[in-house]
Amino acid sequence: MRTLLTATVAAVLLSACGFQLRGTQSSITLTDTAVYVECPDAVSRTLCQQVREGLRTAGADLVPADESRYELDVPRVVESIRAVSISQSADTAENEITRTVTWSVRPRHGNMMTRGDVHRSQTYRYDKDSVLGDANEQADIREDLDRQLAQAVVYQAARAIQSFARQNTDAY
Questions:
Q1: What is the pLDDT of residues 62-100, one digit of tens each?
Q2: By percentage, how much of the chain surpasses pLDDT 70?
Q3: What does the longest C-alpha to C-alpha distance in the chain come to?
Q4: Cα separation of 139 and 158, whole Å?
């Protein structure tokens, strides 16, 4: 009985502070919303594919620019790599890759716009004797970070689109 009470109190406290398990963001719905996505593969093929897939999953119709109601622009990803720990021999022991995506969304007709930056980072052990292994690990980390970034961009852009839609219906 005491264990059940402790678990219940812990759950209430965690939910009261806004804690959510990863991947459990409140659902977004963009059913029948025509969206044009400007996200060149040169930015990041994985990121762009994941953004488009996330919008489709939310119910958006991805359409050409001239048929869209909203335009989502993902013009760039900026990456930085820094040493976060040094070995006893003064070599890099761990690196951190940080990727930042800049995005904006706006109604096709109108002058409102929402912009945002999303950052994600990950640390990995650096092995100076395995340059090829390090490059492969970095590529895997970039893909993982791009998936996380895409999820955040879709969520934030969808919230902005929903806000635009509410403002548009309130104006009538």
A1: 999 999 999 999 999 999 999 888 888 877 888 899 999
A2: 78
A3: 69
A4: 28
Least confident residue range of 77-81, 118-122, 133-137, 163-167: 133-137
Mind giving me the DSSP string for 21-74?
-TT-PPP---TT-EEEEE--TTT-HHHHHHHHHHHHHTTPEE--GGG-SEEEEE
pTM: 0.77
Separation CA 33–CA 132 (nearest Å): 44
* Angstrom distance (rounded) from CA 7 to CA 3: 6
Which are the contacts of 157, defined by CB distance < 8 A and separation ≥ 6? 55, 72, 103, 105, 114, 116
> Tokens for 171?
């104006």
Q: How many CB atoms lie within 10 A of CB 157?
A: 28
Contacts of 11 (CB under 8 A, 6+ apart): none
What one-character DSSP code corresponds to residue 111? Answer: S
What residue spans define the domains of the chain? 28-170
Residue in 147, 150, 139 with CA at minimum distance from that of residue 51 = 150
- The CATH code for residues 28-170 is 3.30.160.150
